[in-house]
Amino acid sequence: MAEEVYEKKMLDKLSDVLIKTLAIFMEKIRPGWSIRNKSRLDEWRLMLYALNRSTLGLIGLAIVLTFIFIGVFGPAIAPYSYSDLLIYKDVKYRFIPPGGKGPNGEIFILGTDEWGRDMLSLMLYGARIPLIITLLVMVIGAPIGIFLGLVAGYYGGKVDEIIMRITDIFLAFPSLVLAIGFAVVLPDRIKNILETNLWLQDILLAFFAIEPVDAPRLANLLAVIIAIAVVWWPGYTRMVRGSTLSIKENIYVEAARAMGMGSLGIMFKHILPNMLAPLLVIMTLDVGSLILLEAGLSYLGIGAQPPLADWGRIVYDGSKWLYRGYWWLSLLPGFLILIVVLGFNLLGDALRDILDPKVRRSIEFKIKRKR
Amino acid sequence: MLKTTCRPILEVRNLYVNFYTYAGVVKAIDGVSFTICEGEIFCLVGETGCGKSVTSRAITKLVPNPGKIEKGEIIYYTPQGKIDLLKLSEEELRKIRGKEIAYIFQDPSSALDPLFTIGYHVAETMVEHKTVRNLKEGLQKAIYILKTVLIPDPEKRVKAYPHELSGGLKQRSVIGIGLSNKPRIVIADEPTSNLDVTIQAQILDLLKKLREREGLTVILITHNMGVVAKMCDRVAVMYAGNIVELGPTERIFENPLHPYTKGLLRAVPNPLIKIERLESIPGTVPNLIYPPPGCRFHPRCPYTMDECKRRKPKLIEIEDGHYVACWLYAG
């Protein structure tokens, strides 16, 4: 094999600039930071190099960043609100195909739906709900799973047995069915809570970019979040328990115990940080599945209720019209879900390489050899 | 070491440890008793799997799963009085581990968490035992501690990660971590077995020096008779979960009594006695799930008698401070 020499690409130079900017920025906030963290900065730079070498990873990252951007700013840049029902102005706004013109000459790039709503705006609004639901499920569900996994793996014995059998029970239920069950039972109770705590309702409305008229529909969204969080932790418990069992065998864990450290300290300082890399990969890959599950629940009519804009829900609403030839109603959001899920999976796969120190070392080696 | 000068610091009485494995109950430690005097270097010698490490771990109830301490007493003599360590709760033991009784582990490359700097490791134990007020003070003190274990350029090394250090430096850091809280007893579990011979000597010298300067009591676990001869005041020879011979180092080397000790000394180059050929002890270490009845060494012993198969010999004193567990001398 020919000698492989690492050529710096354009993106690598960009990465250098990025890291340098970060160093200068942190230096301003805390003087001396960049010198103390020099090796850390070098590692980050090599991580970026590793990412730059994986085209699919870059594509994944671009998709994920776009998704987050749309999720955050979509409602602000959308030309219409999701509740602008243009057919009340003119019936001709109904079912305008992508690129078609409205009665007053406006162009609808992605067409309109049965209520004359602008599909482009719906797509922009529709990213917010899956984004927030995924984030919240990650924030609520994953830590529960991680904590239980750590406890089960670290203590072993009866504690392990009890936690893992409960986990098995949750795993035995089909997650979709369990989520449906929760999502059907919960909304009424949540509605009561929201009606008595109006400030909470206001915050959530702003969060989900929902207009105050649609406040009662918040309960369903929250129910979906809770439902997914409840079915989502067992996977983490299993994975974290497994990693804990293997990391626990390292002598440094035993040494920490022999030096008088407490169990919680050992779990969170010496065991958890050592499994962070695989955990991060799994979490990224899971975001894709979470979006799918959320879309699936919406499609089944459990999550977002019309007229809220949510990709999964729009696929469902549009499916009624598919046979009439109005394909864009269902296919556009469906395609977006496909792309975003794919993006997260590509990024997750790339992360696996990036977080592997061996890949970084080999890049470092090649760069040095070039000099 | 003379009996009259011995001020006991730790006493192990009748320790039994079993491991509950799927294959059966492994009777790993079968009634071990010994006393350690303040300020001495006490060695536990024996083959792999004879229970040296388990005995040392049992002292602070650190027997790994699925092991269980069946019975016994471990008396720790403090200036305030005697404590049975096995009767303490986990919380009380944590205050003793690392602060009063510290461990130095065998494999320095895996005894350090790859994610933290050497300084952090040292500071962490001090913060845990409240020897220092916060991590910052601990990191400063870590520089001083690394200096005492002869690490060159300690100001730089405190910031180093384990992978940036050589094996010898790592082992010294591990010793530094062990000493950070000024413990009274240090249990060193084969501290040199993964190191080069030259570095071995340095580490052993360091331990000896520290013993003199800090007034440490050291329990040294090794399978290397050379290390024993160089380091130890008293030796306990272990075989299959029993102590078979115990006595001052010179006596054991000059006049080994137990057939196992004799075999062991003939199997390694003895620094005191010149022998022509190295021998090996026939047979293998017995399966401790079904240990041989009576003396556990009898299937391999050249002097086996009927008595050996029937009853287990007790440790008896043959000469001053020199004990042996063998029917040959029970006479």
Give a concise summary:
The complex is a heterodimer of chains A (371) and B (331). Chain A has 371 residues and is an all-alpha fold.
What does this structure look like?
The complex is a heterodimer of chains A (371) and B (331). Chain A has 17 helices and 2 strands. With 371 residues, chain A is an all-alpha fold. Chain A has a domain at 122-362: MetI-like fold (Orthogonal Bundle), CATH 1.10.3720.10. Chain A has a two-stranded antiparallel ribbon with strand order 1-2. The longest helix of chain A has 31 residues, at 218-248. The two termini of chain A are 20 Å apart. In chain A, 40% of the residues are buried. The mean pLDDT of chain A is 85. Chain B is α/β, with parallel strands linked by helices. Chain B has a domain at 3-88 and 235-329: Rossmann fold. Chain B is 31% helix and 25% strand. Chain B contains 11 helices and 12 strands. Chain B has an 8-stranded mixed beta sheet with strand order 6-7-8-3-9-10-12-11, with helices on both faces. A 4-stranded antiparallel beta sheet of chain B has the order 2-1-4-5, with helices on one face. In chain B, strand 4 (67-78) and strand 5 (81-84) form a beta hairpin. In chain B, helix 4 crosses helix 6 (167-179). The radius of gyration of chain B is 20 Å and the shape is globular. The two termini of chain B are 26 Å apart. Classes of the chains: A mainly alpha (371), B alpha/beta (331).
